[in-house]
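Deliverable D4.2, example record:
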Amino acid sequence: YFDKSNHALLETFRNLGVRSLRIGGNTADRPTLPFPNTADVDNLMGFARAASTNVIFTFRLRAGGPQNAAALAKHMMDEDSSLIDCFEIGNEPDVYVKTYNDYHSELNRYISAFDNFGVSRTAKFCGPGTTPSKAEWARSFSQDFGHSPRIRFATQHAYPGNSGRS
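Output generated by the structure prediction step:
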């Protein structure tokens, strides 16, 4: 879908002035879906380059693993670091991670794995991207990580129109 040959979508992005593309959503943490591979992200980055947009890329936290994420992040940073706004670890992690402290520990595991795998220290992270009922996670994230040059921004989901399913 996100491929530089998808001219209709590229034209839509240009017409709307889209400058930031967040990849992940709830499919990022769905273990029934395959983990993206280098060909997948190469297509994505080719699209982003053609669309003149930056990418926020979500790595799987639920049933994922920092080693798989680190390998793919290294590939992405080696190939297209200028297009990557930040990496988000998990989507709405409060749905399956019991506490913010558990999320904090997991995020540190991912950041350490990225560092150990040789991912450039210019790689930025963002998060936590929790459901509207857990806004305090964004505050805690900002307090715990906001001083770090590795953090690009804090995120928090809001659904002013309620769930799309209802």
